[in-house]
Automatic annotation (TrEMBL), chains A, B:
Assigned EC number: 7.2.3.1
Quaternary structure and partners: Homodimer.
Function noted in UniProt: Sodium pump that utilizes the energy of pyrophosphate hydrolysis as the driving force for Na(+) movement across the membrane.
Secretion signal span: none
Enzyme class: translocase
Membrane topology field: Multi-pass membrane protein
Site (described: Determinant of potassium dependence): A485
Subcellular location: Cell membrane; Endomembrane system
Protein's recorded name: Putative K(+)-stimulated pyrophosphate-energized sodium pump
Pfam families linked to this entry: H_PPase
InterPro entries for the chain: PPase-energised_H-pump
Cross-referenced HAMAP family: PPase_energized_pump
Regulation: Requires K(+) for maximal activity.
Length: 734, 734
């Protein structure tokens, strides 16, 4: 019976891909509008595609090097499973493919959305939302397809271990984590590269165009405007796609690995099998519910703004509520031990996600006090805007952290059957809570991805001179997306923390396999007791490696982990600063040297700006990304297992808080500026406006480059540690 | 023989206080200059003293509440030692006294320094430096006096434990930590309150005076200028004095407690006694060497700037080099086990401090690339200055963290005799390395405290219209101080991390005493082994409470700890933002409403600005400071011992990195502005200058309010946890 349930997984992922294809065709059938609109869309599309090509070239080189390295480790030194290099490759490939397909759709959809908005708001919404849904469905479809493919392949290829049949599933699930590492590597490059690209263009366009020359956003006289629109696609669409592909797969894979580990000691392979496929099943049903939710988003032809908002929220809420019931059903059908408590863990995850989402909205939306006060601090100039924004961002970390802490404790406590010493089941509960949060990613990502499409549609409308009314409609669509996207963001942030923890637990599991591989069969614990590696518990490993908080190696690792989060942010912030400076100088140069540019008589050199952003991004993204891969390896070689665990947990706790701080400060600055532009405190062009534009510019790399990359960084470091565990257990300096 | 050595401690602290008194009298004998100078100095002095009075009133109320609470805990529920309330009070009192005396000296010295600078640079240096030395000597003198007083008192009052004589010293040393908690509480209030005061005034004065009205710094036409000068005294002098008193005592007390713990299992009370007094002896000899160093700072009458710098560096370097030899001598005379290795740990601490100091200098001084590039980023406006400064600050955390990690590992490794399982000796090594760093605080604090005196002298010279030449000399003195202060700052930062770790270890020790008090004699470890509480090792406690990195309570504590660091910074940043906004509005109002103010015909209402800063500081400082006291108690009540340990270590690792980031970003912004003012990139009044002034304004609360408070926060949370351990071991929710 359970085997038959598994087939839901590949089937629902195929369904998601088919539906994505259908939506894509449907969107392509619409008209792109006037020749000018077509031409602009083509400009943006070519720019975005050529950037992505360039990006994938660099990433391919990195992947080739890593694959060679893994192959040597696996085949030369037998420190790794032989499947590692291939699994790593497919993870990277599918993650990149998700980004590519999402971006392709987005670049086709923007002009069509603008054109549809000429008729009505409702028509604009439908095209933009369904195009966003393509991205959502592609991510979950490809993710789950890849997972089921590897699961079936490894089931078939890895021989049964007669001595210990329970360990086969452990080997399968930890090998599959390698594919997660491929996805994370690709995602980090996409986020960092795309983030630098888009923010360099954005900052450049804003600082010179809006502040110095005083021309509106997306004005065709601004040389950086095409680069800015290309940036929205490569950063906010392709980057986000790769990012969420990574989160989605990471949470499922880590939880499966924990499920395999939770039942290894009992030797009950049937229950182990159920625990491994449970997260996949929840994700599969989540896809079906997302599709239901997407079709539930429909409005009457003459719908008002309020109707649209209601309809959009209805779709996402429907999926989220139904997944609760579905989880109980799946767990019961599967007949997994302790099914009620595990299902409650999933519900806890969902509630935590909603709380984080609400708190994000409260701190960053101009409908609430904090952001309004931030706008007001512009009365005393840009310096107080920056001080207040940083203060706001730092304070805003409180609710999400408390929510996550409550989520960790309760999901662990329920899953462990109210017994804190039942570590493996407790950790499995944390993992499955993260899977619950991301299970309806199909629809939450749709509401997230449709934002940049509406934004680009606005850009197209402005550049094509479609008039005030159309621009207003696309702006309305954009702000609509911002409101509904809050929940999705809450889920993404919360799941990152929980998945980070699950990966940490998987690392311990991988240590077991690594010890096995180098021939260590018995652990001698410090109190003189001997335990077989096969039967050692989490606590035994902790004792064996002395992973307590008084071990200086653990503490050193933690300091390095905290530092890594800051160093990584600093490097990416500086990269944006440098690339933006070059962009500012170029735009100023063009305004100065190309005569008649500001009167609209001469065309600016768009291509030059696109080139500056591309070069900046490609040049700057490699070092910080490689650092994330090198740090856990180096820490392992110097401080061994305790150092690596310290590094991961230090990076997780600092990185998580730092990421929320940066995301919220950036979001609040953005909306504080918008609040002023809505006519408050003097409105557009006032001193207060100028001050809040400075805040917005500083916030750009916060919220779109450094902040979101941090979540990937933390997970990638864990994955690298897992993949390299074989090396760490065999040698370290101290 | 060892008992006779102990007497060096009270004797050298008395000597320090006597010499401070002598320097103070010497300074008072100098002339304050013209009547205008006297009058301005009086204004500043009265403002500062009345602020401090107000501040101490609020702090006294908080102390009264806490003492009542501790008394109930100690006498009512027997959850604490009976000496706790009194020890707590004296710690707070002496910390406050250090700040008061230092500030009193500084406010008398500034006009005299300005007056002396009318004659020569050298004369100005002598008065400013010796007045700074008063502060340095008062801090170390009072600190060590208080420590020896309590040590002797408790030796006499606490009865010998016949069952376990070794535990008497443990009870003494952990009780003395309560006095450290008093000092930390006072220091946190002083830093936060003083920091808010000074930065609100500074930001207000700069934003309206310098940027909007275009009048120079310290111009008497600026209504906030007196408040600004008062702020330098209450924040940079009184705040810093209380802060370093706390660091100094904290490092000695924590190390003594570790020394007592390290030898408890062996039952060798003589060696235990030696380990307890060793840090006090190093500190005492450090005082003597500091005095030597202070007298070594002397120059010829016609000394050039270069000569002065050389002389100042010679003094500090002399003390630092001699302390190395002295340490070996003390350890040998004391006949402590493993004396060579322990002395090497001290040397390691000193080297780490020097590296951190150099790295701080590299990232924040305008003589090096990073700050120069930061100035250059002003070409593209304030937004890029902020982005680059944040990037620079984040990247600058790398070297200090790596230095501290190497310091932790090596000082542990040497002290533990190259055996990582020898935890208590290893931790003692980390503690003694921190003591080494702070042992020459007498002179390093002198070079640090003389900066604000020179700064104020400059303010006095400007307001009294003493002319360009005198102002130039006071500016030179100020920048001289900045260069030599780098090493002192490195020692302070490095010691904070190491002391934080020592306190964590002391917490475990206090758990033992707490269990003893509630009548738990035997620990049942998870593997079934039973250990007597008296004989349990660090690892046994870790196992008993399951303080591993897979325990969700530990992880929850770590998330909360990281969050606390950010929340605390956010609250203090916002407090500065709010108070500064009010100040800006007030200064603008005065410029608008008081006619003739900008022409120098009407006197501004200085008192009003002083009042705004005072109110802002008093109002805003209470909540964040109380949070630091409540967080560990609440975490303990909810998550028990594992949660508290997680909280402390999460707060330590995130807080340490965050503190370096904020201090360095702030310092770099400050000097980037100065670099522009020196005539680079357009010099004063240019667009680049305006952009860097925004950076400097944002950096003010970074480097003088939030950043330095963080180090105290981390230690205060540990001390609170230690003092409240009795409660935590007796009850927790999970």
């Amino acid at each position: 019976m359970e085997t038959s349930l598994f087939w839901i997984v590949p089937v629902s992922s195929a369904l998601a891909l088919l539906l994505a294809w259908y939506f894509y065709r449907q969107m392509k059938a619409e008209s792109e509008g006037t020749p000018t609109m077509e031409c602009i869309a083509l400009h943006v599309r070519t720019g975005a595609m050529s950037y992505l090509k360039q990006q994938y070239k660099v990433v391919t080189m990195v992947f080739v090097c890593l694959v060679i390295f893994f192959a040597i480790m696996a085949y030369g030194f037998n420190l790794q499973n032989h499947w590692v290099p291939v699994a790593f490759l497919t993870g990277g490939f599918f993650s990149g493919l998700s980004g590519y397909l999402g971006m392709k759709t987005a670049t086709y959809a923007s002009a069509r959305t603008a054109n549809a908005a000429r008729n009505s708001l409702n028509k604009g919404l439908r095209i933009a939302f369904r195009s966003g849904a393509v991205m959502g469905l592609v991510v979950v479809g490809l993710g789950l397809l890849d997972i089921s493919f590897w699961y079936l392949l490894l089931q078939y290829c890895i021989p049964e271990d007669v001595m210990n049949p329970a360990s086969k599933l452990c080997v399968i699930t930890t090998t599959m984590l390698t594919f997660g590492m491929g996805a994370s590597t690709q995602a980090l490059f996409a986020r960092v590269g795309g983030g630098i690209y888009t923010k360099a263009a954005d900052v450049g366009a804003d600082l010179v165009g809006k502040v110095e020359a005083g021309i509106p956003e997306d004005d065709p006289r601004n040389p950086a405007t095409i680069a800015d629109n290309v940036g929205d696609n490569v950063g906010d669409v392709a980057g986000m796609g790769a990012d969420l592909y990574e989160s989605y797969c990471g949470s499922i894979l880590a939880t499966s690995a924990l499920g395999a580990a939770a039942f290894i000691a009992s030797g009950d392979t049937e229950m182990q099998f159920k625990a491994v496929i449970a997260p996949m099943l929840i994700a599969a049903v989540g896809i079906l519910l997302s599709i239901l939710g997407i079709f539930a988003v429909r409005t009457r032809e003459d719908a008002s703004m309020k109707d649209l908002l209601k309809s959009l929220s209805f779709g996402t809420n429907l999926s989220s509520v139904l997944i609760v019931f579905a989880t109980f059903l799946i767990m019961w059908l599967l007949g997994i031990d302790n099914w009620i408590n595990l299902s409650i863990s999933v519900v806890i995850g969902l509630v935590v996600g909603v709380i984080i989402g609400r708190s994000t909205e409260y701190y960053t939306s101009q409908s609430y006090k904090p952001t309004q006060k931030l706008s007001e601090s512009g009365k005393t100039g840009p310096a107080t805007v920056i001080i207040s924004g940083i203060g706001l961002g730092m304070i805003s970390t409180t609710i999400p952290v408390i929510a996550v802490v409550i989520g960790i404790i309760l999901s662990y406590w329920f899953a462990a059957g109210f017994d804190f010493t039942n570590i493996s089941m407790g950790l499995y509960g944390i993992g499955i809570a993260a899977v619950g949060m991301l299970s309806t990613l199909g629809i939450t990502l749709a509401t997230d991805a449709y934002g940049p499409i509406a934004d680009n549609a606005g850009g197209n409308a402005e550049m094509s001179g479609l008039g005030e009314e159309v621009r207003k409609r696309t702006d309305a669509l954009d702000s609509l997306g911002n409101t509904t996207a809050a929940t999705g963001k809450g889920f993404a942030i919360g799941s990152a923390a929980l998945t980070g923890l699950s990966l940490l637990a998987s690392y311990i599991e991988e240590i077991r396999i690594g010890l096995d591989r180098i021939g260590t069969a018995i652990l001698e614990l410090p109190n003189g007791i001997e335990v077989a590696v096969h039967e050692a518990s989490f606590t035994d490993f902790m004792m064996y490696y002395d992973v307590t908080l008084m071990n200086p190696k653990v503490i050193s690792g933690m300091f390095i982990g905290s530092m890594m989060a800051f160093l990584f942010c600093g490097l990416t912030m500086n990269a944006v600063g440098r690339a933006a400076s070059r962009m500012v100088e170029e735009v100023r140069r063009q305004f100065r040297e190309i005569k008649g540019i500001l009167e609209g008589k001469a065309e600016p050199d768009y291509a030059r700006c696109v080139q500056i952003s591309t070069k900046g991004a490609q040049h700057e993204m490699v070092f910080p990304s490689l650092l994330a891969i090198i740090a856990p390896v180096a820490t392992g070689l110097i401080f061994g297992v305790p150092g690596v665990i310290g590094l991961l947990i230090g990076g997780l706790s600092s990185g998580f808080v730092l990421a929320i701080f940066m995301a919220n400060a950036g979001g609040a600055w953005d909306n504080a500026k918008k609040y002023v532009e809505e006519g408050n405190f003097g409105g557009k062009g006032s001193e207060v406006h100028r001050a809040t534009v400075v805040g917005d510019t500083v916030g750009d790399p916060f919220k779109d480059t450094s902040g979101p990359s941090l979540n990937i960084l933390v997970k990638l470091m864990s994955m690298v540690a897992i993949v390299m565990a074989g090396l760490t257990v065999s040698w370290s300096l101290f």
